[in-house]
Amino acid sequence: MMRRIAVPILACLVLAACGREEAPVQPVDDDRSAEGEVLEGTISDAMLPLDTIQSQSPPLESGEDRTPAEE
Fold first, then answer.
1. Whole-number Å distance between alpha carbons of 9 and 15
2. How far apart, in Å, are the Cα atoms of 21 and each of 12, 15, 24, 28?
3. Sign (positive/negative) of CA torsion 53, 54, 57, 63?
């Protein structure tokens, strides 16, 4: 009974001790700058060009075109 409690507690202590070293902070001097204007709004289905686009899946292969080696 004591082992059932001691093993998980010991595992938690070992995991808690890991990762004390902080990651190095890299300076941000690559001249990043976002430009532009953010506009509020939503996207609706009315904005999609459903009238002009037709999606088609690739044709299915029929089993008659296969050679016995491919099966």
1. 10
2. 18, 13, 9, 21
3. negative
pLDDT at 17: 75
In this predicted structure, the answer to whether residue 6 has a pLDDT above a threshold of 80 is yes
Helices (H) and strands (E) in the chain, counts: 1, 0
Measured at the CA of 28, the angle between CA 26 and CA 31, to 5 degrees, comes to: 155
Q: How far, in Å, CA of 58 to CA of 31, rounded?
A: 45
Average pLDDT over residues 24-41: 76
Q: How far apart are CA 61 and CA 52, in angstroms?
A: 28
Q: Tell me the whole-structure pTM to 2 decimals.
A: 0.27
The rounded distance, in Å, linking the Cα atoms of 32 and 35 is 10
